[in-house]
Amino acid sequence: MNKNNRTITLTLDQLLQKDQYIIPLYQRNFAWEDREVEQLLRDVEENTNLNYYIGTLVVSEGIKAGISFYEIIDGQQRLTAVNIIYSVLAKMVNERNQFELNLSFESREKSTRALKYLRDKGMLDSTDGAGLESFNLAIRTVKKFAKEVLGDDKLRIEHYLKEKLLRVNIFRVELHEFTDKNHYFEVMNNRGEQLEAHEIVKAKLMDTLQNEQEREIFAMVWNACSDMNSRLENNSSLRCLWGEHFAEDPLSLVSFGEISKKLIQIGKVNKSCDVAASFSIANITTYQRTKENPQEEKLQDGLDEKYYSVIDFPNFLLQVLEIGGFKQSVRMDAGKFLLYEFGCVGNQSLPDARLFLAMLLRLRVLFDKYIIKRKRMDQTSRGWKWVIERPIYNNGKQYVVNTFDDSMDDADEVDDTSETPTASKPMCMLQAMFFVTFRRDVYMRWLTKALQAVNKTPNGTTLWETLLKYSVSFIKNSRSSDGIEKNEYTKGQAIHHYVFNFLDYQLWYLYYIMVTSKDHPDLHKYSDIVSLINRPGVKVGFQYFIFTRRNSIEHYLAQEKGHFRGISDEVINNFGNLSLISGGLNSKLSNRDCEEKKEYHDPKNPASLKYELMLSEKDWNEDTIKQHGKLMIELLASKSEGYFDIC
Question: Is 73 helix (H, G, I), strand (E, B) or coil?
Answer without folding.
Answer: strand
